[in-house]
Amino acid sequence: MGIGDKMKNAAESTKGKMKEKTGDATDNEDLQAEGQAEKSVADLKQAGEKAKDAFKD
Q1: Torsions phi, psi of 9, nearest 5?
Q2: The pTM of the whole model exceeds 0.90
Q3: CA 10 to CA 40: how far, in whole Å?
């Protein structure tokens, strides 16, 4: 996994967290759910890439 991919996944996770927090603060359930989904997808991508890296070594 390249550094760029790691940074992209971390940014997506952070973006999802921010949307989730904004949805919490504004009682916007749709925004909250969207943020949770984005965060989950980014976290899964990071976990998959870390697993690939572990098997490369």
Answers
A1: -65, -40
A2: no
A3: 11
CA–CA gap between residue 24 and residue 30 (Å, rounded): 10
Grouped pLDDT means (10 residues each) for the chain, 57 residues: 81 95 96 96 90 78
**Terminal alpha carbon distance of the chain:** 12
Residue 35 and residue 17 in contact, taking contact as beta carbons nearer than 8 Å: yes
Find the angle CA(6)-CA(54)-CA(2) to the nearest 5 degrees.
25
CA atoms lying within 13 Å on the CB side of residue 21: 6
In DSSP notation, 26-43 reads: HT-HHHHHHHHHHHHHHH
